[in-house]
From TrEMBL, chain A:
One of its GO terms (cellular component) is endoplasmic reticulum. InterPro entries: Bet3, NO_sig/Golgi_transp_ligand-bd, TRAPP_component. This is Trafficking protein particle complex subunit. SUPFAM superfamilies: Ligand-binding domain in the NO signalling and Golgi transport (SSF111126). Coiled coil: none annotated. Gene3D superfamilies: Trafficking protein particle complex subunit 3. Its main location: endoplasmic reticulum. It is found in: Endoplasmic reticulum; Golgi apparatus, cis-Golgi network.
UniProtKB/TrEMBL annotation, chain B:
Part of the multisubunit TRAPP (transport protein particle) complex. This is Trafficking protein particle complex subunit 5. It is found in: Endoplasmic reticulum; Golgi apparatus, cis-Golgi network. Its main location: endoplasmic reticulum. One of its GO terms (cellular component) is TRAPPI protein complex. PANTHER family: 41-2 PROTEIN ANTIGEN-RELATED, TRAFFICKING PROTEIN PARTICLE COMPLEX SUBUNIT 5. Belongs to the TRAPP small subunits family. BET3 subfamily. InterPro entries: NO_sig/Golgi_transp_ligand-bd, TRAPP-I_su5, TRAPP_component. Keywords: Endoplasmic reticulum, ER-Golgi transport, Golgi apparatus, Transport. It comes from the Eukaryota. It holds the Pfam family TRAPP. It comes from Caenorhabditis brenneri.
Amino acid sequence: MSKAIKQNLADSKKMSAELFCLTYGAMVTEMLKDYEDPKDVTIQLDKMGFNMGTRLADDFLAKNANVPRCVDTRQIADVLCRTAIPCYLGVSATASSWTSGDREFTITLESNPLTELVQVTPNLVSAGLSYSQMIAGAIRGALEAVHFKVYASATDSGSNTEIRIRFDQVLKDSLPAGEDD
Amino acid sequence: MVKTTGILDKSLSRGKGEVNLSTFAVLFSEMVLYAQNRSETVTDIHDKIASYGKQVGLRMFDIIVLREKGYKRETKLLGMLMFIKSTVWKNLFGKEADKLERSNDDHCTYLLIEKDPLVNTYISVPRDKGVLNCAAFAAGIVEAILESASFKCKVTAHWHNGTAYVIQFDESVIARENALMDSSR
């Protein structure tokens, strides 16, 4: 299976990580100007990440037909770290710090393409800006698209980025609002 | 107080890093959406996207000049345009821009033409906003690069044989360029 995944990685189109990084930076800068509170920027980044995640989940499933259905959080973490994150961010990731009966874990990105050319000032961090929150939001969105409700938050430390994920529940299929009688 | 290593303490990467195009595509679409939600008119959206591009252009120019040309910057207008068409475009989008033309009607106007800009690949423009071209982002990048190399200009993106970036130089730039040509003759 891993060979097939490598094949898929090679097939997908690539682009410059620097343009990606600077584009994201330009957007965050603009949002910091638009919103008064850096906390609101974090919330907004999380929402945008969520939207991106739901779309990337479709893209991911369309391109990786051989990914098995996950039954527990260990498996979710495995697919995220081994396939999804290397595929979309081009970096490796590891899952660790399992707590509360495997319901919470931390994904560590050893290098983060979003912060490659970026320095976030300490006063913004202490005011509540989580620069890489978009990745956490994207994971939340992608997992929600496959019916896992999780909470995710990101922290940057040096060149590492840690994403803490808390599993909440498996969502049930439900009819869209207004269609049940 | 913990002393952290700042970004300037690290050496500059060689810029070979790559990410998946899909990731950029969804990020860019979120950005366009954000600009759209905060603007009233199509011109506003255009300007906003261009201003994001400028932020990128300013920084990208420094990196590329440092990495590819050993701090040396072009001073001639045509050299600068060729540098953008080939080196900058290759660094940003992995290929050269398609064509560089000079307008027949106006000696201050140059056109940089790209059939299929990367940023437009995944954006579908609604019919009521037909004139919106999200390559305004790339236009912003070009404008920032030219301005920071002291070629005062205005760059806009239009639909014409694909996408055309219309580069309208300030009169003074052209006059300076002509004087430079005369003195070297």
